[in-house]
Amino acid sequence: MTTQEVANRFYELSQQGKFDQILGELFSQDAKSVEPAGADMPSVEGLDNIIQKGKSWNEAVEEMHGGSTGAPIVAGNFFSCTMAMDVTMKGQGRMNMEEVCLYQVKDGKIVLEQFFY
């Protein structure tokens, strides 16, 4: 798949809340996930570690009230989108979270995700 095709599929699945399917279908086995410096979540390498990171985040969620993913913008081998969540985190209360997400595509798979918030 081209970067545009990966971005379109990512957006299609994200609109349905199918983030596990995004990981299984669109991510490379050796992908990297990079968080900002000082973030609560660690940066990790490898699809299994990215999946575990997602599970850890989900376990910290008390209640998800809503969320959205913006349409992707593609440039070369990269695409970006915005994500927003209205979420209650365990022990932290309800909050609105917004971030810019950057993805790098190589050989039809996402090899890097990086979050800015």
Summarize the structure.
Helix 1 runs antiparallel to helix 2.
Could you describe the 3D structure shown?
The protein is of the alpha+beta class. It is 30% helix and 48% strand. It contains 3 helices and 7 strands; from the N terminus they run H-H-E-E-H-E-E-E-E-E. The protein has helices spanning 3-15, 19-26, 47-60; strands at 27-34, 44-45, 61-69, 73-75, 78-89, 93-106, 109-116. Strands 1, 2, 3, 4, 5, 6 and 7 form a 7-stranded mixed sheet that branches. The radius of gyration is 14 Å and the shape is globular.
List the total number of helices: 3
Compute the average pLDDT.
Answer: 97
Distance between the termini: 29 Å
Main sheet properties: 7 strands, mixed
Global structural class? alpha+beta
Structural features:
single chain, 117 residues, 7-stranded mixed β-sheet
List the helices and strands and how they pair.
Layout: H1 3-15, H2 19-26, E1 27-34, E2 44-45, H3 47-60, E3 61-69, E4 73-75, E5 78-89, E6 93-106, E7 109-116
